[in-house]
Every structure is written in structure tokens, then in C-alpha cells.
Amino acid sequence: MEIIQEAWLFFQNQILGMQWLNALIGKGLSALVVDGKVLSSGRVLSPEEAAKLLKDSLS
Fold it and tell me: Which of 1, 31, 49, 51 could form a disulfide with 45 if both were Cys (CB 3.0 to 4.6 A apart)?
């Protein structure tokens, strides 16, 4: 019974909660961040600009 509960928790967290996607995006953004600023096409973006860029790219 414990195996079924663990499998259900995994399904809820990883599949329904999309934790894998959250982790993937987090790692990708972390690779771009330098001292609290994001590098994009050779220029440094503020956190607000980076958030807008990410939001626009996901729309």
C-alpha cells in the first residue's frame, strides 16, 4: 500500500504539478543569471526585462 501512495504522490508532484518543468526552467534561468542580471543576445537585462522576455516567449 505504501508503494501505491508513493507512486500517487510522485504522479501528483511531478506530472500534475509539473515540478520537472519548473526545475528545468529554473536551471535554464540560473545558467543565464550573472550577479542578479540576465544575459540576452550580448546585453544585460534587468530582472523585470528578463521576466517580460520569458513571459512573452511562453505566450
Answer: 49
